[in-house]
Hints:
The chain has helices spanning about 1-5, 20-30, 45-50, 75-80, 135-145, 160-165, 185-200; strands at about 10-15, 35-40, 65, 70-75, 85-90, 100-105, 110-115, 125-130, 170-175, 180, 215, 220, 225-230, 230, 235-240, 245, 250-255, 260, 265-270, 275, 285, 290. It has about 290 residues and is an alpha/beta fold. The chain has two domains: about 1-180, Spore Coat Polysaccharide Biosynthesis Protein SpsA, Chain A (Alpha-Beta Complex), CATH 3.90.550.10; about 190-290, 3 Solenoid (UDP N-Acetylglucosamine Acyltransferase, domain 1), CATH 2.160.10. Strands 11, 12, 14, 15, 17, 19 and 21 form a seven-stranded parallel beta sheet that branches.
Amino acid sequence: MDRLTKAGCTEFVFIIGYLGDKIEQYITSHYPDCTCHFVIQTLGKGTGHAIWLARDLIQPEEELFIVLGDTIFEADLQTVLQSEGTLLGVKKVEDPRLFGVAELDDGGNISKLVEKPSIPKSNLALVGLYKISEGAELMRCLTYLIENEIRTQNEFHLTDALMCMVSGGVKMRTFAVEQWFDCGKKEIILQTNRTLLDRGSVPVNDPARFPGSIIVEPVYIGENVQIKDSIIGPHVSIGNDASIQRSIISNSIIGPYAELRNAIMENSLVGSDATLVGTVQSLNLGDSAEINLS
Length: 294
């Protein structure tokens, strides 16, 4: 949101589902000057279906900039948004089978788009950034897919709608994304956390407020966090109001209001308001969960 508002975006449509009320509360409180709409997707029918649900909020002549919610990226957004035509963000990857893939013709225009191809003919992965100049044509293609039950991996994919546009004569080009983290997996979330902390973590100015503890930077420690008799870091992010006692934690993300006691933990995710007591090596613990290993 910070990057998008800085690039000049003022109106936003959020497609939300499970726990979407938390997103709505956060956005409305932190970005009061933006015009924000919230559309609920009750069933996970794919990215194409999610965008189609917002069709009544999009005027035919309007340009769209679509950003997938689990994508953390670095790109020159101002240049992209000021460019003419439809542009799709891409990055070269080692295994394109996990992503939507763009194939280019000799002129650099997109000739084909395929969602998770079994035999990729390109290593240009779609990273979840789409500047669409032909909003009306996009909605027409999405409606065609949905009305005719045209699915890929049992979902209505945005990639298929974009390919429909290309087949209809819409010219599309790509723009390079410098860095991209597709945060849909635990390992990538932790890698992203490490990268962002290495780039500029918030210094712990008063380690004395954590009695008997050692803080190994880079770390991020939120407000009202209690840490006692523990070793924290490196590469640990801790949400507001968390409590950690007699624990050793590295390369992990601890959610707000989480409580950890007597834990040895690395390469782990602990959700909001979760509780863990006892030793563990690597863990992915959801919100409000409780585990006692003592």
